[in-house]
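User: These chains co-purify. Model them together.
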Amino acid sequence: MERSVVFAGFGGQGLLFTGQVLARAAIKDGLEVFWIPSYGPEMRGGTASCTVIVGDEPIGSPVVDEFDAAVVMNLPSLRKFGPLVAPGGLVILNSSLLGDHGCGRSDVDEMRLPCTELAARGGDDKLVSVVALGALVAHLGWVTRESIGAALREMAGRKRPEVVDADLGAFAAGLEAGDVGRAA
Amino acid sequence: MAPRQEIEIGLRRTEAELEAGRRARVLMKGNEAIAEAAIQAGCDAYFGYPITPQAELLEWMARRMPEVGRVFVQAESELGAINMALGAAATGARVMVSSSSPGISLMAEAMSYMAGSGTPMVLVNVMRAGPGLGGIGPSQSDYFQATKGHGHGDYRVPVLAPASIGEAMKLMATAFELAERYRTPVMLVADGILGQAMEPVELRFRTPERQAFDWALTGAAGRPARIVKSLDLDPEVLERRNLALQQKYREIARHETRWEGWQLADAEFAIVAYGTAARVARSAIARAREKGMKVGLFRPITLWPFPERELARMSRQLHGILTVELSSGQMIEDVRLAVEGRCPVAFHGRMGGLVPTPDEVLGALKALRGRVERTRTTTSHDPATEHHPGDASANGTGVRTGARRRGRG
Amino acid sequence: MTLHARSSSVETQRAAAARLVYRKPDVLIDRATHYCPGCGHGVIHRLLAEVMTDLDLPAHTIAVAPVGCAVFIYDYLDVDFVEAPHGRAPAVATGIRRVRPEAFVLTYQGDGDLAAIGTAEIVHAAARGERITAIFVNNGIYGMTGGQMAPTTLLGQRTTSSPSGRDAELMGYPIRITEMLAQLPGVTYAARGSVADAGSIGRLKVMIRRACQVQIEGGGFAIVEVLSNCPVGWGMTPQESLEHLKGSVAEAYPLGVIVDRSAPSTARPAAAAATNPEA
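Assistant: Joint model of the three components:
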């Protein structure tokens, strides 16, 4: 079975990085995975998105009709991807930037997360996407938390070892928020 | 000699093998994986020019080739790049260039020279949407260019079309091997998605063995001078050169045709698709099977030589074929030529950088089945199992205009 | 492999040659050429053959043949050759250079090839300072295709594609591409010679030798432009064409060394080089 999530927002919000963390974690869990970014001038125009498809079998179509989950970090992304989430799917909104905006659908789970504040609590308020990843993993459990931790250490540690703790902190903050959201 | 049997690349392995390999894999971007596979295959020199969506391939080479003591040159244009490749390859070096569609057009001239002079080289096209400057989205609209035309003159080049990043890595070694074995340029075609995406891959590489070339330019010390050229102003001589080329192409077609089948054993319908389109088809087929449709996938891995005999054989058991491409329909011409009207051949494709979704493809499959069923109820015989050589338009080519036919009916 | 060493057989040949009035270098294949009567290509081929033999280059030469009248140069010079598409010889030579650092790499191009269709390739090979020796034959016309206007065609010159003469307003001006190239730091040596008469030919040989030596010594890009004649394309007798070469053509394209960055202290000005044939 294949499950898909889109991470969308502004360039610089760590969306592509976070998608890759999820992809690496999936590999560690023995799953199949496919990561595809929006590319070209689009990525220089301020918006960025990537899609991650996780499955038990080799991934088929690299494009999906509808997403099982969407992480949206700004208004254009909400408008673009909100309608593309499957009924019963999950939308994680960064309420720090989106305020009261929502996707206005009753057939999806909408999780509003103050990502900036939660990331700051983890140690670096820029790590908003990692917070969202924590909530996503807590809510959907596609991959193990341990694998995400290992993937974060690998990826962040390679270039900027000093931010590993902040990344792990942001992920933990997201997990906690996601656990609460799920319990509610 | 019988054509190569169905081969398996990454799609079907035993559970134990899958499990063993799964955790050892690394996440790699298509463009970078292709570049690294080329390096591991022994590529001596890479010449390139930046173009989206293959720029990461050039960047990987810029960093890695000097690390391993090999040649990287960023050329002044794609013309410059491929002619540098021509020069380097003429000395017997293992050489590669890469680009995307508009850049590949510029390379057509030198490709023809290399085909004519028998110079081995590997060219990677990470296809984007055209025509003209077009867009940067994924596309398969260079199928004609790759398999039928490209440069001037009566020549062909083997064209390899991977459907996953792992397969692309494996095929890089194959590409160099074919290039040197048959003294020909070889193309590997991916699309923007395969170039830009990341997938888990195993870091297992293959380096084709080096051959001693009796044609390579190394300086004429101790032997007669050698000439690598395509020019022959004497028509008789030039025809002989062409006949020899055609003989070579027949040999390549006999020995190097590659394809993959999936769920074809009981299939009544098949999707013929390659590259990214084949992955969409696979998802669509899984959904169709859930709904009880017996559908399989026929995936050419070599676009030239096209697996025509295998598809022809398969078409005898099929009620209909759907060709899916990221184009207006190019490979479908080869599908039709192979099927020769034995069953209807329908098409679904998207252009401009768009990719068909599995549901779109499923819809096209259902439409094809509906059309076939209507044909079967209005005729006393079964068009899927009876061969009507004289009835090709009703069975094969007529199907593509099925919407109009339906309108009349 | 060193390019400097002269084999004893070469010394023997030279000793034998000292007693001879004329001797064909072995690397020049004994065969009638396809060139028109009076054409300069034959002289240039011979000079190349002499210099390459003197410097013991033929056995490690990989040369690039052009498109144009000299397309069959591989039939006349007995060294390894690859044929380049029109204009692309400098790129082809770059590829050879990079994978064969030990080879002597030579290109031979005409004016249409080098200064029109192949402008990008020559400029960038020169800009990269590719260690190759380029022979650029400028006869101001597309000879092979029947005498059309070339980028180097003189103002007023009649060709089959400028039947009323080259008009600057419609067809632009002749290109002095060697001067353009000489401005690039990657160019170690750039010079212009001529085949107009025996004196010019002697001076040209010095230039070709220098352009080859630059490569042997590990310098950068070296180019010799050769003003040559095309009696058939110009509609002249061979004798008239040589007079024209000495007159209008040499006025438009001044002879001499344009730049020599190989030895700054000993770089000779054009005038000195012109008075110092066959050192």
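The longest strand of chain C covers residues 187-194.
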